[in-house]
Amino acid sequence: MNIHAALDALEAFLGQRLSRSKSDLSLHGESETHFPRMPPDAVAYPETTAEVSRIMQICARHGCPVIAWGAGTSLEGHTSAVKGGVTLDMGRMNRVLDIQAADMDVRVQPGVTREALNAELRATGLFFPIDPGANATLGGMAATRASGTTAVRYGTMRDNVLALEVVLADGRVIRTGTRARKSSAGYDLTALFVGSEGTLGIITELTLRLHGQPEAISAGVCAFEGFHGAVNAVIETIQMGLPLARMEFLDEASAAAVNAYAGMTFPEKPHLLFELHGSPDSVAEDAQRFGDIVTDHGSSGFEWSDRTQDRKTLWAMRHNAFYAILALRPGARSLVTDICVPISRLAQAVEETRADIAQSGLAGPILGHVGDGNFHAILLVDPAEPSEMAAAKAVSHRMVKRSLALGGTATGEHGVGLGKRDYMAKEHGDGWAVMGQLKQALDPLDLLNPGKLVP
Amino acid sequence: MNIHAALDALEAFLGQRLSRSKSDLSLHGESETHFPRMPPDAVAYPETTAEVSRIMQICARHGCPVIAWGAGTSLEGHTSAVKGGVTLDMGRMNRVLDIQAADMDVRVQPGVTREALNAELRATGLFFPIDPGANATLGGMAATRASGTTAVRYGTMRDNVLALEVVLADGRVIRTGTRARKSSAGYDLTALFVGSEGTLGIITELTLRLHGQPEAISAGVCAFEGFHGAVNAVIETIQMGLPLARMEFLDEASAAAVNAYAGMTFPEKPHLLFELHGSPDSVAEDAQRFGDIVTDHGSSGFEWSDRTQDRKTLWAMRHNAFYAILALRPGARSLVTDICVPISRLAQAVEETRADIAQSGLAGPILGHVGDGNFHAILLVDPAEPSEMAAAKAVSHRMVKRSLALGGTATGEHGVGLGKRDYMAKEHGDGWAVMGQLKQALDPLDLLNPGKLVP
């Protein structure tokens, strides 16, 4: 491994678009959560697939690690340069290449953010629904198999990436998938790269599935006396097959944080936030049925609104909940957990987690995409107090153990990165070794995001 | 490679459950379509995962090929024993293991057929929607990434397999996926094995996603003066986001075949057959909107029915269309094509295919799952006339070329097997080499269904 030789060659190739400035390195070594800063040796700003391919060839020749970077909104340390090397900032590959409205698909470069894409789509009557909260890049969202508030209706990135262009560790460029809606033509390479977290290749183009902008949207919020009512209302809604487009849970501590941060006036109780998409008739019918369910589970009823501004306020509030919770304790860092269990086990998983957090003495509001069985506790720790981080890690550890025991997963949507790697053997058994074999087959020199995900 | 030593060891292990009877070998060497009979050297009937693992270990030691067998309904020669070896008939592993109604999932052994599963589910209010027509096994359906008439609404096997148990080439048993609805915990091994056609491992258990039996179902049929009207009605329906549960096309020749075979009285015109699932109100609303669309495209309107018996007759007829078409020419064999294109290219793809078949002089009715952009021509050939088979292969070849040029795939749902292997390099480019690298990583001795799918 000769990183310096690689950097010299890259500099000769990219000129100013290879940065070694301290601020650039530091920025690309940051984590949104509790991981220590681990900067790369350089940051490259490629502008074309051919450049990415050439960069990979140079790095392969010199054994230099390569880490792909989208918007840096990952929560599990995915982009930390644990072995140094070059971070590829894909931000300049940010063009929407081809909107095929009749086929409801779009081809984009990986640095396009989801908000930028939706702005571009506005006039077409179509939209890209996956919404992890942060304004992540689509390349990053594919790499981490992101989902978020709308997965309960529209699925995750797994379900909405039709095709990819990928640069492999040796610089070869492949295209996976086609624009056809389905195919049985061999191994599903698209699905293999979605969620591979930059360890198998660099995504340089994506073909995404679009959806029709709903004719009617209604959003609303309802409070419950206790979290059991809220969780059971979710379970019944899913089991009845009511097609809610979003169904989010905020516990009382999260509601309080949002009130303080955004000047809202939610009662300090567990809440469900929800949204319905459809025709005006179907939305009205579904709202009626959902209203019956929440009333049965002890909510005093819900407020809902068809007004765009009200909806925007509601979801902006939900999306800022992470920052609202961080603001509860100035100077704190967060450890964000992310388990996902079968829906029948959701009440048990939330209840045991609440009790565990209470016993730990930490602040740890709970919120999440409960329609999928997925929820997060945001554990707040003083970075200067090692005992607090240890307590938070212990809570997180028990949450994962609980999730696996209940038939769930260690990470519903945040990915493995550094934070969940230690659980992969437990979750997958020999399947983790198989992941290692696949990695070895496609990246035998371990150039691509080394130290992450695989054994 | 020492097949005989393997068979001796397998016989010592399995006793009577290793068959070398002529009729068994012949049956397991058959193809539903035009492929020559290629029987294995023996057929094993395992009853447990542990037995499959032990069989794989024995075969690995002796370098003996292993081919998994479900119901033998594959259309692309997937189960042909091109290098001899042992066929694993999974028919005895046919138990429904665990229905989790609250989570809408079920764990089954691979030899359970889709009809057997749905019979077992009837009282639960749930069903498994994927319907390729044939009463295939669920293991076989997963291995070929099957879909069929309901994919337009419920997706394919890709979308409905949550988790798998797989025996690898070296006998290791892994579990992929969990019962959680989503996960970002590493490479999507479930998606890798779905569609791998028995070349990466033997599926010994599946966890499947279930759906609620719709409250209301309506099915119907409408005739068009020309195929353009039918195809354009499909395109508009998809683009408007109308959630039809099935949307099938039969051309005039297919309609005539069905009339002759099943005593039906369809006008000899292009038809759409369709089905709606939902609440009584939503089905009525959708039927109204669909009626407007087909009328706009020149149909004289449709007949539809909520009666179970009428629906059963309609879909039995559709499912027997393959045999009805075969019966048009007694003694004929079929070459069944299977292309899938972006919906905006569907009219062009069908039109050019019709013209091509007409010019070839062959009988080749067209039908398919046009809601996905997927259709089949069933080319009838006299097996004693090599020139006819050559003409059919040439038509099929041009169809694939056309599909790829239009942004589609060589196979929408039938898989690669022997029949589409020659197109994989063209469809995937270097991606096919990547598939070969994955195969090499997991099955370095090329034991699992050799001669299929990969380079």
Automatic annotation (TrEMBL), chains A, B:
It holds the Pfam family FAD_binding_4. Its EC number is 1.1.2.4. Gene3D superfamilies: 3.30.465.10, 3.30.70.2740, Vanillyl-alcohol Oxidase, Chain A, domain 4. It is an enzyme of class 1 (oxidoreductase). InterPro entries: FAD-bd_oxidored_4_C, FAD-bd_PCMH, FAD-bd_PCMH-like_sf, FAD-bd_PCMH_sub2, FAD-linked_Oxase-like_C, Oxid_FAD_bind_N, Vanillyl_alc_oxidase_C-sub2. The keyword NADP does not apply. Coiled coil: none annotated. Keywords: FAD, Flavoprotein, Oxidoreductase, Transit peptide. Its cofactor is FAD. Residues 36-213 form the FAD-binding PCMH-type domain. It comes from the Bacteria. GO terms for biological process: lactate catabolic process. GO terms for molecular function: D-lactate dehydrogenase (cytochrome) activity; D-lactate dehydrogenase (NAD+) activity; FAD binding. Belongs to the FAD-binding oxidoreductase/transferase type 4 family. This is D-lactate dehydrogenase (cytochrome).
